[in-house]
Write a structure and sequence with these properties.
Strand 2 (35-41) and strand 3 form a beta hairpin. The protein has 3 helices and 5 strands. The strands form 2 sheets. The protein has a 3-stranded antiparallel β-sheet with strand order 1-2-3, with helices on one face. A two-stranded antiparallel ribbon has the order 4-5. It is an alpha+beta fold.
Length: 86
């Protein structure tokens, strides 16, 4: 688990309280094979990591933070509303 993911999960658990049923899991994106951490709180499944999908060489609609490609490995990509809906 990355430090970023564990901090996010810790914050979610602190805000929601420890009485909730928490379950860690993973989600595999079949488009590119990446596996992401997830957490289940009651009946909702949340991604515990930022999405980092980029369709082939087409970069329209998504970009790395501060236009620095190395940031995409740490933070994932930023998506336009239209791209995120696809």
């Amino acid at each position: 688990m990355t430090c970023k993911a564990s901090i996010i999960i810790s914050l979610v658990l602190m805000v929601t309280g420890t009485s909730l049923a928490q379950k860690m899991g993973t989600f595999k994106d079949v488009r590119d094979g990446r596996t992401y951490l997830s957490v289940t709180l009651h009946d909702q499944v949340w991604m515990a990591e930022n999405l980092s999908f980029r369709s082939g060489t087409n970069s329209e609609g998504c970009w790395a933070y501060l236009n620095n490609q190395q940031n995409a490995e740490v933070y994932g990509y930023l998506y336009s509303y239209e791209t995120a809906q696809k």
